[in-house]
Design a protein that fits this description.
DNA-binding; alpha+beta; 6 helices; disordered N terminus; globular; homodimer; four-stranded antiparallel β-sheet
Chain lengths: 228, 228
DNA sequence: CGGACCGTTGACTCTTGTCAAAGCCAGTGG
DNA sequence: CCACTGGCTTTGACAAGAGTCAACGGTCCG
């Protein structure tokens, strides 16, 4: 069913920043590593929330589905990000790899048990979720108020700011997801996403290689187009 | 003429809340009460985050502005809700009363100092922010994927579920905000909001008294229209 | 080579936005 | 008491941005 695609072997150093205190971790750092193929689900909405995951490699799309199949991607989780935090017993969204990925699995019960007596850990959870909240609201502003051009530009600026490539190729933004993923995140169709990217190309603001690698030619112009 | 047009961003007049000793502060219990007139700002984006507030009465709209004036309301805070939680030193959105309101002011520094050594308080913060995150993502799904009718219906269902009126008048939903506030939350214009509400009336799903009091006539139908 | 999948492009449709005018209600002042 | 004013909502006519449907093209892989 899932064909074996060739693994990325080139993943560089992983972000060390962890919400789990190294000094007193009860094995949190060593949760089992799991490989997830492109399009494979890590978990679905409604699944019991037995684990929290840290993305080690690849990208995980977090999404919610309507009954008729419409999908809203609420976040992309990149290496170093945690997914599945929260206080509810079940997951409230789907998590699905957009490309081949690796994730570390961490026990929810152990985490919560630890947090109940460790204020600094609880505060780290607080901060992690607060950061997610800021991101969600930022996306909400895009989707609620911006034009297609502004949304796509803001999306690219956002990816650009993450600087996933490290210092080399500062102005190259990889798009490790399909047009449909971008569209489902921005509340646009794949056709509109495609047309908008084409327009950015004709405006010489970006260049696109193989449809997946965006070269930002005019950063400031792109930021202007992102609409504040 | 002393009507409520006090306040375009008059946060310079923000009264300083009294700071209760941290030792007595079980996090959320104390703080001075402040009255906020309709349209008055509690704080603005960029203001130093010196206080967290609990809504005691009325409704506070939390919003973000684009440079050209477009506004996205990211949440309505009702009595019992907290506003201004987070980890950043400054506020990242505006908070503005949609109608006359009362709020309790709580010192940020006292709260954070307390939370640093009290895991249960820190966990409460974690849970409060997690709940905000769930709400923000739910709104994101509406704005990103739903039609105008579905958004308005979902908005009404959401208010209906809060059951602000207590047990009496279970199917009456007060709208203590303007059409422009609803529109800015749902990513619609006031005209579209108005037309959609009119359509719901002609469908006999709701009835509207004085434009501000919605009687839900067919709850199930309204939920269907909300699109899952 | 052929098929599956994805992205691009074009023609056309339609929901929602824009602009404009009228209605409604509350508060005010003659 | 009633006309006037201002803020907000409703309604209508029209425009436009994004969606829909369809065809084509490129790439990967068996």
């Amino acid at each position: 069913m899932f064909s074996e695609t060739v693994a990325h072997r080139d993943h560089g150093k992983l972000p060390v920043a962890s919400i789990f205190p190294a000094s007193q971790n009860k094995g949190f750092e060593r949760g089992s590593l799991r490989r997830v193929e492109a399009r494979e689900h890590v978990f679905c909405e409604g699944d019991p929330r037995t684990h929290v995951f840290r993305v080690e490699d690849g990208v995980i799309a977090l999404s919610k589905l309507l009954s008729d199949g419409r999908r809203q991607i609420i976040d992309f989780a990149y290496p170093g990000d945690y997914i599945g935090l929260g206080v509810l017993p079940d997951h409230v969204f789907d998590a699905q790899a957009t490309c081949s990925a690796k994730i570390r699995c961490l026990s929810t019960t152990a985490l919560e048990h630890e947090a109940a007596s460790d204020a600094s850990l609880a505060l780290k959870l607080y901060k992690a979720v607060s950061a997610e909240l800021v991101a969600a609201r930022s996306l909400l502003v895009s989707v609620g108020q911006k034009t297609a051009m502004e949304r796509v530009a803001a999306f690219l600026v956002n990816l650009h700011a993450r600087n996933v490539n490290g210092d080399t190729e500062r102005d190259v933004v990889k798009l490790p997801m399909r047009r449909s993923d971008i569209g489902d995140m921005l509340g646009l169709t794949i056709e509109t996403v495609s047309r908008t990217i084409t327009k950015l190309r004709t405006m010489h603001v970006i260049d696109v290689i193989n449809g997946t690698e965006v070269h930002v030619l005019r950063t400031e112009r792109l930021k202007e187009l992102a609409g504040e």
